[in-house]
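Allow me, if you will, to draw on your knowledge of protein folds for a short while. I have a record of one protein: its chain in single-letter code and its fold written as discrete structure tokens. I remain grateful for any guidance, and I place the record below:
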Amino acid sequence: MATPGTVAFHTLGCKLNFSETSAISRMFEGAGYGVVDFKEPADIYVINTCSVTDFADRKCRKTVRKALKQSPDAFVVVIGCYAQLKPDEIADIPGVDLVLGAAEKFKILDFVDNISKAPGKGMVSAGEVKEANTFVQAFSFGDRTRSFLKVQDGCDYKCSFCTIPQARGGSRSDTVERIVANAKEIAASGVKEIVLTGVNIGDFGNGTEVIEGTKPKKEALFIDLIRELDKVEGIERIRISSIEPNLLTNEIIDFVADSERFVPHFHVPLQSGNNKQLRMMRRRYKRELYAERVAKIKERMPHCCIGVDVIVGFPGETEEDFLETYRFINELDISYLHVFTYSERANTPAADMDGIVEVGERRRRNEMLRILSEKKRRYFYENHLSETRPVLFEAKNAEGRMFGFTDNYVKVVAPFDESLTNTVRSVRLLKASPEGEIEVELAELTV
């Protein structure tokens, strides 16, 4: 394209993808492009993809069609994890002009000036994932309430079901100094909450020497990072997006318990409550360690919200194995589940394992755990009724109502009041709404 035009972005997947889309958007703005909503006509559409979902291909195709329906002559660029894993497959999608892999996506401006509307197969620039060996900083802007701040990327773990190392490369981290500087910039924008994101953020510090050019005198650990972030003025809340149980140390738990900025909310992947399955998945802990982590969190913070990732239908998971997982989770003092139905991923060890679980059975197990999750969430919410807790209110006006989250991740609903937007207020939790949120009355609010 000879002169900068307009560009629109669409993000599929995780908080990390959102932070990176936002960073790439600012690159386009800096180059003179006008950034517009994805629902509007644009000269370029950039689609940031995810590989975790079963429907990555379908979602990508649907999003491309949606873009071209608005602007038939627009250039379509696909980036992200799915673009790294299956670039040629994406290039075959009608209307896709350019596919950029993990090492190329942050050089997108170098490519868009030279793309021409592809008559057939789109141009592919997706090298070996090992080329994605430097850390590129990113954080999200646009949401007045919270920002996703990327602190780590890639993963050195070799879980047998996961394609993330193939899609994002090895573990690497930003420097503490640069993360703190980014947090200060976020605070200056008026954002009240930062969510720390990465692929394996508990592994923070790994790969930091790549950024500096020389190995640091002392490799900073995740605990060192959160100690420094806790000092940043202007940010009222910092939330840890997800952390592996084997990396969630007593030191981290104790620090969060005593911190005024880090909120009492952990999301800790479990994947299975059965040690046989954990071994087959190549996870780095046993269920006994997981139970210890939950007990330690609740000992220090009885009010803490704990979220759990779990996979059902992994190869070799018998009915008894699944029931063992179900009973284990049922007995844990956790608050909600993210349930994933196992799906085969090319080039992963799990894809070649025996003991395939029938798809209908996988769905049945998923539904059982989803019901359990809802019971856990309601029980957690009900335990906090009549309490007074701080809530960060969000901007959205939903038919005269507005929503927010307590420090310990209870979703609340109140009559819409513009003056409450992006403020932290103390509220009394009254009762559950028909949709399941906790109602609070404005009369109960105190500044």
About this structure: The radius of gyration is 22 Å.
